[in-house]
């Protein structure tokens, strides 16, 4: 019996080594962790829209269907959640005031003018200081036409979501949606 153990251990070590090598490259904090899936506009679920009359914009907020299905009241937002916020300009009248539809909602112009995203994955967030870290969330901005990531500072994303919504897993509408009685 004894003799059989050493090869078994060697085999196991080999398998573990192979598994470790198959791991994706080590995580480093930053927006490069987030990419827009090419089909997000077809596949993602728009769970809410927020009118911002003061800023003359409409915000469409989408989540991937896998995370949508796993949202539970009172629980953290599921790992793998990718929330995308795509803004449209509101249609204005001749005096520059936003027009309203029959339900009192802003009327969107077709194109997206800004796209922002937040994504949560197990192990993310490591490397941010306590004044910035949003649990396991990362943030990114994208060019609304090309879908490419936009370089630029993101500290404000972290600080605002941290200060306002640390108890809601760092989200505004996502948490509220998951916890709304339906
Ligand atoms: C001053 C506060 C503030 C800053 C700065 C901020 N956000 Fe938000 N964010 C909000 C609020 C409030 C909402 C809810 C929608 C609304 O009312 O505009 C929101 C919503 C979102 C959403 C939709 C999911 C959710 O939590 O409701 C995403 C994605 C998002 N923000 C990403 C970003 C990114 C990326 C940045 C930085 C480029 C950023 N935010 C900067 C306050 C902020």
UniProtKB/TrEMBL annotation:
Q: Where is the signal peptide?
A: 1-22
- InterPro entries, per this entry? Cytochrome_P460 (IPR032033), Cytochrome_P460_sp (IPR038142)
Keywords from UniProt, A to Z, are: Signal
Is Signal given among the entry's keywords?
yes
Q: Which Pfam families match?
A: Cytochrome_P460 (PF16694)
Coiled coil ranges (UniProt) are none
Instruction: Give the stretches traversing the membrane.
Output: none
Asked whether the keyword Protein transport is assigned, the reply is no
Domain annotation Cytochrome P460: ranges: 37-173
Record-given protein name: Cytochrome P460 family protein
- Origin species, per record, is Roseomonas nitratireducens
């Amino acid at each position: 019996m004894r003799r059989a153990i050493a090869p078994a251990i060697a085999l196991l070590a080999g398998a573990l080594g192979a598994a470790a090598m198959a791991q994706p490259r080590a995580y480093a904090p930053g927006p490069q962790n987030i990419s827009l899936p090419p089909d997000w506009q077809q596949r993602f679920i728009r769970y809410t829209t927020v009118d911002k009359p003061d800023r003359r914009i409409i915000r469409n907020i989408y989540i991937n269907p896998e995370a949508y299905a796993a949202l539970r009241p009172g629980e953290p937002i599921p790992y793998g959640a990718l929330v995308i916020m795509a803004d449209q300009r509101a249609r204005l009248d001749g005096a520059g005031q936003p027009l309203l539809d029959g339900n009192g909602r802003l009327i969107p112009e077709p194109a997206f003018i800004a796209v922002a995203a937040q994504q949560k994955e197990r192990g993310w967030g490591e490397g941010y200081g306590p004044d910035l870290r949003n649990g396991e969330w990362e943030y990114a901005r994208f060019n609304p036409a090309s879908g490419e990531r936009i370089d630029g500072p993101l500290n404000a994303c972290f600080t605002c979501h941290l200060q306002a919504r640390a108890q809601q897993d760092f989200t505004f509408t996502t948490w509220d949606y998951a916890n709304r009685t339906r």
